[in-house]
Amino acid sequence: MSRLNRYLILDVCATGVALLALTGTVAALSVSPIARAQSSNASISTLSTVTGVAAPKGASRLPKGSLTAGMGRLMVGGAREFKLPEPNRPSDAEVYFWTGSNYKEGRARFLYTQFESALTEAGYTVTQVDDSYQNTPNVFDEDKYGTAGLNHSSGDARPLFFHANNVEKKQTIVGVWLDQQSTKRLVLAVGEVGFAGAPKVSKAPTISDPNVWLVKDFKNAGKGIPAAPMPTFAKMAPKPRTVRGLVKDGNGKPIAGARLVAWASAAGGFRTSVEGKTNAQGIYEMPLPIGICQIVNADCKVTYEGTEMLLPLHPVDGERDEFDSKRGHVENFVLRTSGAANETGGTGQSYGAPMRILTWKTIEKSIIEVTLKPKGPLADGSPAKTLVFRWKAPADGLSSETMIGGIPLAQYKLTAKLYDGDDALPLRAKKTFSDGGEDPVFAPSLDVEFESENNGRASLGRSGIKRFEVTLEP
After folding, report:
1. Is 442's pLDDT higher than 90?
2. Contact 166, 14 (CB under 8 A)
């Protein structure tokens, strides 16, 4: 078989895994063993002597030793595909089947889940596995593993593999389901192997440094970091047919040249747009036409470490209010470089910078850690913390994509490592895309310098910063 369409693993919690030694020493699985079992009153007891768990309703059980060469090869192939260790002894498998009136098309998936739940209740640990998992070379070869006879075009499903571990019993089992829809039968084979011991558990060290922040929300990396106090704003009286206000940075300094755009909607649906800028004192004032108005954009240019960025402004009260131009309106803004952008049109987004991290050639059940150490203060001049991001490597140990938002805007030095058991292993980093010069190369660390998107606007809850792309590998 060139690829599994789907499979399931019942994995290990604090135990190991082992390979069920099933060789092709018995007759090939076909209709005949099941037919013979039916005609000779096959055992109606479905309580497994291997697991102590009853098979789902409607199952019949073949005598031990009825496992066929084809199913045996499937089980061995499944175990090898998941890199399970070789067995210390062979073991007979139990074979259950559903056929005739007990086979109903579309019910197999429910029986899988029912058996999995029963194993979990009996103390076996269950873990789902991503169905894209595939090793190279792929052992699911149709000729080698006896699957060439499955009629996929007639609706035969591909095998679904599992293994399970029970710490209390010190037991590991391996099995395979095979739903043959064209012949209307479902087969389950389950066998026991020796208990292989506790699996590797990867742990990352506890962080106690108050200047290092373990990120809890990847969508808003600055969430939870104490925010700088909001600057104070002098009270300003509204003027009819006018919107006015003050614009300051996070330290309370006025921002000159900030750009604001307001819309006015009059009767009949006509809409007028007006623009204005702040003066040297950070004050703006824009005359308005008659109608219901709202400030729809507010941004400013900031030069940070020699790089000019177009950044959004945040309404001090958190809302960009609609108002009648007859009464006039006052709306103050502040520059923010991190935190949530809970304004109309930007709900759920955050200020700061976005990043995408691709990882390759990792180790399954390991922990990936990325550290961003600031080279200086944030773009608004406030102190910056070191940020630490941790997540589990993909179950197959291959590629993964991690999206991060709301990184407090600063320049950082990026380093990465992988925790495999008790070992901390280095990862190298590079920019995913070239800036137009030479192609990036992997290095022990990477300078992270964010850039403006330069799309002419940086408001409505968007950070205004171009996403930084990183690739990691050993």
Report:
1. yes
2. no
